Amino acid sequence: xxxxxxxxxxxxxxxxxxxxxxxxxxxALKQPLAEAEYVDALLxxxxxxxxxxxxxxxxxxxxxxxxxxxxxxxxxxxxxxxxQRLIPFADGIEITMEANPGTVEAGRFAGFAxxxxxxxxxxxxxxxxxxxxxxxxxxxxxxAIAAAQQAAQAGLRSFNLDLMHGxxxxxxxxxxADLRQAIALNPPHLSWYQLxxxxxxxxxxxxxVLPEDDLLWEIQEQGHRLLQEAGYQQYEISAYxxxxxxxxxxxxxxxxxxYLGIGCGAHGKLTQSDxxxxxxxxxxHPKGYLDPTRSFLDxxxxxxxxxxxxxxxxxxxxxxxxxxIAEFTLRTGLPLEPxxxxxxxxxxxxxxxxxxxxxxxxxxxxxxLNQLLTLFLDT
Length: 379
Hints:
Blueprint: E1 6-12, E2 14-15, E3 27-28, H1 35-49, E4 58-65, H2 73-86, E5 89-99, H3 103-106, H4 109-115, E6 119-125, H5 129-134, H6 141-152, E7 158-165, H7 172-184, E8 189-194, H8 202-205, H9 213-229, E9 233-236, E10 239-241, H10 248-254, E11 258-263, E12 267-271, E13 277-282, H11 286-289, E14 297-302, H12 308-316, E15 323-324, H13 326-332, H14 340-348, E16 352-355, E17 358-361, H15 363-367, H16 369-374
Parallel strand pairs: 1-4, 1-11, 2-3, 4-5, 5-6, 6-7, 7-8
Antiparallel strand pairs: 8-10, 9-10, 12-13, 13-14, 15-17, 16-17
C-alpha cells in the first residue's frame, strides 16, 4: 500500500514556569538544562523508531514543548544534524520551532535560522499586560512585539503568532485590540484560538470567569472579518494564513498523515506496509526519559478498524478545504460502504455536502463540528 507523508514531532518539555491554562507535558525548570543529554536521548529515541518509518523521508519537523527556545542554537543545530543523519529530509522541508517572546530567547532567532529552523511559532497569547499576568506569561507586550519584529528579520521562511481569545473577563473590544496588534505585525501565519479550561491545570482547579457564549461568538465573527480583510485565509478551525503560508506540518496531522513522536510524552502515528496503524507514546517525565536503563517507549497499540473512521474525520474535517472521497480508503485502509448511512445523515442535517468526488463541510458543519463528528462514532 502507498504510505502517507511522514513528519517528525520533537518534544522539549521544560518551561521557565507552568502556565495555569496549560495541559501539555511541560515541567518548570528547577535545575540546569540537560541540553546535551536530552539531544543524545532524542537521537537514540529516533533511531529506535526507524524500523516503523517504511524508509520514508521527512516532509516536516515540529519542535514543540514546553519551551524549545530555552535550548541554544548550537544544541538545535546538533539535534537537526543528527536527525538528518538518521532519516533523509525531503526537498523544501518545513522545520518549525516554538518560542517564547522573552528577550533572551527572541535574540536567538537568527541563530535558530542558521541551525536549520525555517519557521518559528511565537507564543504571544495576548498583548494586554493584565491578561498576560493572568495567563502566567513571563513576557510583556513590548517583548512580544519585538519578538515578532525579530522573527520577520531573522531570515526565516515564515513565522506564526499564537494568540488567544475568550480570556478571563475579556470584552469584545479587548479581544479585537489584541487581534489588530497581531495583524499589524504582519505574520504570515496566525493561530487564533479560544481559551478552554482543561482538567488537571491550575485554571481547572480554580476556573476564572470567562466570557459568555454569545460574546464568544461575536468575538469569533468580528475577528474572522478582521482577519479576512487583512488578507488572511482560514484554513483550519483556529488557523489563518496568508496565501502559501499554511503550516505544512499541521496540515499533515489534519490530513491523517503519519508522524514520528520523539521526546518526553510525544505521540506518534505510523502506518505500516501491512495496513496496520500504530500509535506510540513515549515516557512522559524527563527523569524517566533520560534514565539509560529504560526504554523510551511507554505505550504502543494498533488503531482498530472500528476507531479509524472517527479518528480520520476528527482530524480531516477541521480543515476548510474539500476532502477527496478517495482519501478515506487511502488513509484508513477501510471501504467506504459502511459510512453511507452517517454520510447521508450529515447531508440531510446540512452539515456536509457532496460534490463530484469531494466532501465539503458546510458553514453549519464547521459551527457544529462536534455534532457532525458524533455521526461517525459507531460506524
